[in-house]
Amino acid sequence: MTDDKDVLRDVWFGRIPTCFTLYQDEITEREAEPYYLLLPRVSYLTLVTDKVKKHFQKVMRQEDISEIWFEYEGTPLKWHYPIGLLFDLLASSSALPWNITVHFKSFPEKDLLHCPSKDVIEAHFMSCVKEADALKHKSQVINEMQKKDHKQLWMGLQNDRFDQFWAINRKLMEYPAEENGFRYIPFRIYQTTTERPFIQKLFRPVAPDGQLHTLGDLLKEVCPSAVAPEDGEKKNQVMIHGIEPMLETPLQWLSEHLSYPDNFLHISIIPQPTD
Amino acid sequence: MPSSVLWAVDLFGRVFTLSTAGQSWELCRDAQLEFKRVSAATQCCWGIACDNQVYVYVCASDVPIRRREEAYENQRWNPVGGFCETLLPSDRWPWSDVSGLQHRALDGVALPSPHWEWESDWYVDENFGGEPTEKGGWTYAIDFPATYTRDKKWNSCVRRRRWIRYRRYKSRDAWAKIPAEDDPQQLPDPFNDISVGGWEIIDEPVGRLSVWAVSLQGKVWYREDVSHPNPEGSSWSLVDTPAEAVQISCGPHDLLWVTLWEGQALVREGINRNNPKGSSWSIVESPMSENGIMHVSVGVGVVWAVTKDRKVWFRRGVNSYNPCGTSWIEMVGEMMMVNVGLNDQVWGIGWEDRALYFRQGVTQSELSGKTWKAIVAGRECDRSHSGSSSSLLSAGCFFGDEVRGSGESCGPSDTDACSEAERPGPDPDIGGTAERGVEVAGSASAPAELPWTNIDLKEPKKGPSHSAPGFPETPDLSSLGLLPLGLEDPYSAGYPPLWAWVSGGGCAVEAHAVLKWSAVQSGLSPSVQTLSLSITPAQTAAWRKQIFQQLTERTKRELENFRHYEQAVEQSVWVKTGALQWWCDWKPHKWVDVRVALEQFMGHDGARDSILFIYYAVHEEKKYVHVFLNEVTALVPMLHEAKHSFALYTPERTQQRWPVRLAAATEQDMSDWLALLNLSCCESRRVHGRPSPQAIWSVTCKGDIFVSEPSPDLEAPERLLPCDQMFWRQMGGHLRLVEANSRGVVWGIGYDHTAWVYTGGYGGGCFQGLARSTSNIYTQSDVKCVYIYENQRWNPVTGYTSRGLPTDRYMWSDATGLQECTKTSTKPPSLQWTWVSDWFVDFSVSGGTDQEGWQYASDFPASYHGYKTMKDFVRRRCWASRKCKLVTSGPWLEVAPIALGDVSIIPESPGANGSGPSIALWAVSDKGDVLCRLGVSELNPAGSSWLHVGTDQPFASVSIGACYQVWAVARDGSAFYRGSVSPSQPAGDCWYHIPSPPKQRLTQVSVGHTAVFALDENGNLWYRQGVTPSYPQGSSWEHVSNNVRRVSVGPLDQVWGDGGGGWMLAPGSGTQGDPGSALVSPAAVPMVPLWWGGQTFKGSAFQVWVIANKVQGSRSLSRGTVCHRTGVQPHEPKGRGWDYGIGGGWDHLSVRANATRAPRSSSQETPSRQSGEQSLPSEPLKVAGGPQETLGPVCC
């Protein structure tokens, strides 16, 4: 594999084998079998779990069903985070498949946003894309697009169509010839160890001296605790899409190739497993 | 576009050049001289030094300037001594010129000036009109002057032979003083101003220039006979003027203006191709009576002037018909002088600041431009004259609009250009003199101009100042990189240089490209950036490898054991529908409106298969046809001026010569469909990424490039893959021919003869997004001419008029006369092309023309000649050409600066394992020079430089075989073999003239591992018999087939077990010997290359592919069809028949990279089967004759 295009494909077709089980306290008419599914890493939980919902609703009474939500080892799963991010952040060190518990009751209002319909996911997704383009191109590219292009981005994601999505998304990944990259890199850094949901700052892909900024430069600047000291022991993993890119990787390249469909680099900082 | 240079002189008289690909001013070598004026053309620069003498600076090139001197030795037979030098008293000189009238002794022929040197000693020319003479080179006749023949007859009383000697211009890249006149009476007084131009007036001789000068006494002089082969010209001749001149300006075409002492301008009229000196003067008054004109400068269709009050003026309404123009317009700004360069771009020197300005926004529609922009570039002393790797660093960062920092180090002195040896890093002394940080204003798309040598993936030669592994920029240059043009603020960077004179006559700045200077483009393109990424070691960087590796591991970890899990998102069938037009399959054929639907079935690994449905209605009844995209073998765009259409081929459709033709409403719509269908085809065949090094490349007559991955079965003798099943996918770019070898080196030549090298990318053109590689895609342009003809008939009363007989052709037509083509109605070939010039008469038509370009004939249609006789009642005139230009993109980088006509890359010999140090590549320049490229390798496919291989005449085609056998064909149709070419002697030693097949002029030659095939102008394919290691030039030509347009012989080597050396037995077995072959015998002895003997010569076969002229299918006829010779075996090198492949508009093919080894066959004698049996042994290619003859869909 030598072509960068293959990276896009690998990222898009990343799948997490998941086992959904119904929460033990949910009242059922029959016993609920676990449900096994390959979840697309780049998509959103509530967008790809229609089958799960149907499966469990079959064994439940209509009146016991309210909004579905998911939880892993006691942590409610935010549907507005991409699935791959949730997995990397919370479950990357555990064995596969990923065991997710399905709830229909006691919606954790303080932890989760409601997701009454797919329109909400679309609105969230598009707002992320727009925010990312504001950082990358002062919104020039996204604003020049037509409504149908926006729709195609979303439909591409919803229907898991790589070509459909990238036919439009490539325009968001371009930049002026005379620059060496985007204006700012859209990124978010997540840590399980802090209260703060994520870190997001303005960060340019190229240093004033013309050097390309690397992933390491970014972390040192915005999240120094994540980087091990020169000779110190590595305490954290820096993970994107289930892999740990080297800190020397140019940030611009990462942004072009390892961003999620919402055009953000979602970077997870997780403690180094102590096996 | 190759880089070109702007010339300028500073106040100290030092001459500097600024390359469009460079960053800073370079001091001209030979800096002892101080200059006051320079005037540049593309290849040279004329100047007046402070000694008031004229100098010419000829830019070096890999091709030398050489001229042939000839002398004839004449002898007469007498009964006593046989032929001897004793001639009759009435005879000519024993040593004479060609006419015999001038005495010309060999030792009397002197070099014209000290700037020439002899290339070798005199030798006898043994080539007589394309045929070799006997040793000694004598030609015989009955008497002087008479018709000479090769053969000595009983009545041959006289004989003569030609002696040749070449002289070479040696003062290149240096100022060469134009020798003073021999005759002191004629000696012009010291010169005051000089101007060169006129290169667009006429093409013959090559590089002809008009050089005009003004002397201190106010006289105007014209330099005679200046051309590329004669850069110094021959003599000055005086052109009378009505008043004293002070300054002169000569445009590229027919404009010539002179500034008079009195302040008016003098305009030359009547300049044309027959009279480049013009005929008369007319006077144009100054725009203001109180302030006379001080300076004028002219371009193709513009005149700029500066008056004594420093105001700048633009002359309105200037053109060839009205060189005086109509009126003056005042422009903003005060200038000392202005200079109009190529493309009518304007350069100026500011009055007060003496800074250099460029007129921004000059386009064909707005010749006066918009604003003056200062150009500020640092002056680097002659640090890297030899084009070292430093220019690379300017890549990605050419133009910008804001100053973001500066790398300047202010020093006190502005003088003393130090010319010490090359230094790797910033030199403090030099750095002080130059505003090193400030950007250059060169020209267009910088990255595409980079010589490939600089993009070597190997260690960049920058030495210790490397800053980071991922981005090889030295600190000083990286700041340079970010620094844009210091527009509007020349003072920001320290002491600016003070300029005295500028000349843009050699600086090619495209009108449209100028836009790039002024603002950040709204169209965001990643190409430039990715260049800098791709040239760094990033491709091989550890981080990249790690990401690839980890992603693979991730997929394994997360997916391998869970494939039985259900997918969260079901893949439904995705359908794209649209409205297109379809060229219906039934008669009468016409375009019918159809609905089309592309149904795609996609798997979760992204692979998919698709069906294209075409729904149509016949008599109210709805019907459809469908095509499985995995059966599609080619999708060919067919952009005509009216229809945006494309052809879709399947094996069946290929056999029918009747592709599915679809047309879209808009070009965009067509590109979208084409790209989508292409992607679907590639997906279903799992073809993507860069073509393999073994790929077969081809080009259509529209310049589209197609690649096919060879299947091992292509040359397998028993289960041969019919070549109509080969899948061709399109590559971006536009080429006329393409040649490849199996080490991944691919070269192409455009219609404008520009040489291109393949960068390893894919996609481009309409293949964007996923269908193109992230990097290695560059802008590519091509130029070709469109011809229309003006036809006239003679009648007794009025002479020739445009009123013809009712049966005559259109008075304005295409070449055939069948299509009406008027100047206004004729459009560029497709919407991709735009006109870049106006119509002009083409004088270089075959058959010759008269002075107005007319060709005469007795009637339409007939053969035309360039003079009028009594019997000629019709005449035609070729309005060639209007030039049109296409801009596209593709994985190609230009190999500047020499334009090529043909190229050939050595096919890999089977034993070599691709480990050779460098790859032999030969080419023929557009002027017919034979060239050998040095330094070509996988890592540097563009090579480093050309080695010129001298010839006695212009060549047309060259081909190098796997064992370094170089064959070539001259323009006169004769063939040549180059002796002693080897890795250690890449250019060989001398040419051996090989007789052509009887009465045929060869046009092309192709050499595989050992086999030699040639093509003549009548479409006959010839096989060279008797080629052996000890006798590489072979013995005779044997006819293989007719109806061939192009041949490509591949190196494919099949192992034939112990075939008993079938190869060695082949020659002589039942072939008729060529009587002429004996003539080459003297050459045979020294030709055996020793290193060749070690190769296994026996048991090698090869593959022969051609482009056939016409092939009849079951439904239609196609012209330009890829055909594969079947049954080619060591003992049957001519093969048996043809297998017909993709066709209709194919022009060129290279199978020379295909070294795919077929599986070893157990039975050698298995005859070719399947489609190979379509034709009988040695059957010529099918030629159509039926009434069904229609042009292929991509008609030429």
TrEMBL record, chain A:
The keyword Cytoplasm applies. It is a peripheral membrane protein. InterPro entries: Atg5, ATG5_HBR, Atg5_HR, ATG5_UblA, Atg5_UblA_dom_sf, ATG5_UblB. One of its GO terms (biological process) is cellular response to nitrogen starvation. Residues 184-269 form the Autophagy protein ATG5 UblB domain. Residues 119-174 form the Autophagy protein ATG5 alpha-helical bundle region domain. One of its GO terms (molecular function) is Atg8-family ligase activity. Keywords: Acetylation, Apoptosis, Autophagy, Cytoplasm, Immunity, Isopeptide bond, Membrane, Ubl conjugation. Signal peptide: none annotated. Residues 11-104 form the Autophagy protein ATG5 UblA domain. It comes from the Eukaryota. The keyword rRNA processing does not apply. GO terms for cellular component: Atg12-Atg5-Atg16 complex; autophagosome; mitochondria-associated endoplasmic reticulum membrane contact site; phagophore; phagophore assembly site membrane. Pfam families: ATG5_HBR (PF20637), ATG5_UblA (PF20638), ATG5_UblB (PF04106). It is found in: Cytoplasm; Preautophagosomal structure membrane. Belongs to the ATG5 family. Involved in autophagic vesicle formation. Conjugated with ATG12. Forms a conjugate with ATG12. Part of the minor complex composed of 4 sets of ATG12-ATG5 and ATG16L1 (400 kDa); this complex interacts with ATG3 leading to disruption of ATG7 interaction and promotion of ATG8-like proteins lipidation. Forms an 800-kDa complex composed of ATG12-ATG5 and ATG16L2. The ATG12-ATG5 conjugate interacts with RAB33A; this interaction is bridged by ATG16L1 and promotes ATG12-ATG5-ATG16L1 complex recruitment to phagophores. Interacts with TECPR1; the interaction is direct and does not take place when ATG16L1 is associated with the ATG5-ATG12 conjugate. This is Autophagy protein 5.
From TrEMBL, chain B:
This is Tectonin beta-propeller repeat-containing protein 1 isoform X1. It comes from the Eukaryota. It comes from Camelus bactrianus.
